[in-house]
């Protein structure tokens, strides 16, 4: 049973969140606040979550007649450190985005904490949205982040586990009998602001 991440073309049961929809939801939220200059801190390019979230971000931008400026497209590795490194790159830009969507909360926490160390205020100088709402256990997690919730434990892991147990108990090969794409939701904290 594939849970959260998946392999395209693998014929197996799957429970995963709507990662593309989550990134598109984040774009829509920022656009409603008036942001037209939105950056992206993506995860590793070969990661399926990164790919789905990038597709959703691009679709969300296109739906609002926007495009991602290549200089505002940064690559991280889902770590706090890559978030901190991205903050240095954004802070050094003369023409910065007004908002950045980070592909996970760990990068968002590192990004926000480092921006603050560099003298930029979130959300006054830059709005930040993380995608996944995972609990990060570090001093950087003390910063509030606004995020799109990807319910891994309660709504991804439990159905995947139940499907696998059911197949084993029935003596069956856990062949594809279900594919759930779970809805995501926006969790509002105080780190985005209107773009004026």
Would you give an account of this structure?
- About 35% of the residues lie in helices and about 20% in strands.
- By secondary structure, it is of the alpha/beta class.
- The strands form two sheets. It has a six-stranded mixed sheet with strand order 4-3-5-6-7-9, sandwiched between helices.
- Strand 3, helix 2 (about 50-65) and strand 4 (about 75) form a beta-alpha-beta unit.
- Helix 1 runs parallel beside helix 2 and helix 3 (about 80-90) crosses helix 4 (about 105-115).
- Residues about 135-140 and about 175-190 have low confidence and may be disordered.
Give a brief outline of the structure.
The chain is of the alpha/beta class.
Feature tags:
196 residues; six-stranded mixed β-sheet; three-stranded parallel β-sheet; 9 strands
What is the count of DSSP helices, taking H or I runs of 4+ residues? 5
Question: Mean pLDDT, nearest integer?
Answer: 78
Number of strands: 9
Structural class per helix/strand content?
alpha/beta
Indicate the radius of gyration in whole angstroms: 18 Å
Report the uncertain regions. Answer: 137-142, 176-191
* Sequence of secondary-structure elements: EEHEHEHEHEEHEE
Shape: elongated
Lateral arrangement of strands in the main beta sheet: 4-3-5-6-7-9
Helix content: 25-40%
Instruction: Estimate what percentage of residues fall within beta strands.
Output: 15-25%
Mind summarizing the main beta sheet?
6 strands, mixed
How many angstroms separate the termini? 46 Å
């Amino acid at each position: 049973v594939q849970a959260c991440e998946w392999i395209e073309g693998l014929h197996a049961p799957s429970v995963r969140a709507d990662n593309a929809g989550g990134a598109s939801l984040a774009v829509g939220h920022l656009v409603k606040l008036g942001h037209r200059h939105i950056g992206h801190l993506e995860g590793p390019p070969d990661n399926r979550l990164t790919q789905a979230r990038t597709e959703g971000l691009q679709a969300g931008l296109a739906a609002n007649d926007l495009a991602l400026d290549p200089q505002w497209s940064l690559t991280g590795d889902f770590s706090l450190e890559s978030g901190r490194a991205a903050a240095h790159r954004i802070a050094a830009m003369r023409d910065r985005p007004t908002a950045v969507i980070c592909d996970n909360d760990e990068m968002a926490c590192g990004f926000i904490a480092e921006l603050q160390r560099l003298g930029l205020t979130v959300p006054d100088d830059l709005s930040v949205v993380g995608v996944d709402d995972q609990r990060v256990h570090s001093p950087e997690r003390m910063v509030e982040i606004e995020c799109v919730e990807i319910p891994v434990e309660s709504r991804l892991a439990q159905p995947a586990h139940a499907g696998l147990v059911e197949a084993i108990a029935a003596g069956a090969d856990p062949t594809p009998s279900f594919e759930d794409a779970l809805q995501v939701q926006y969790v509002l904290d105080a780190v985005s602001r209107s773009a004026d």
